[in-house]
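Reviewers of the previous submission asked for a worked example of the structure-prediction workflow described in the proposal, so we include one complete record here. The input consisted solely of the amino acid sequence. No template or homolog information was supplied to the procedure at any stage.
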Amino acid sequence: QLQASGGGLVQAGGSLRLSCVLSGSILSIFDMDWYRQAPGKQRELVATITPSSRTDYADSVKGRFTVSKDNAKNTVYLQMNNLKPEDTAVYYCRAERPSDFFISWGQGTLVTVSS
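From that input alone, the workflow returned the following structure tokens.
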């Protein structure tokens, strides 16, 4: 089970840090992803962190967002800096277990960036 938090309202240029806590399993064996879905748009992959802590980002957020994790706390983070109005979306965390492709989604947290 995944529980995301940390969303809110921020002005353009500001920062937010999202958190996603995994319960009932061990974070270190999962690929952890952050997705977002803006109103009227498809859900898109924003950032990924693998069990070996390799990271990858969508071009639109490279240099502004950083994904990290704390295996001891079973938590993955998304640090979002220099936020833009186009970053406004519901952000979701997703866990995928490479061994059997089991997938779990969190409930989403709303990020609103005002201009």
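The CA atoms of residues 86 and 113 lie 8 Å apart. We consider this example representative of the routine output the project will generate in years two and three.
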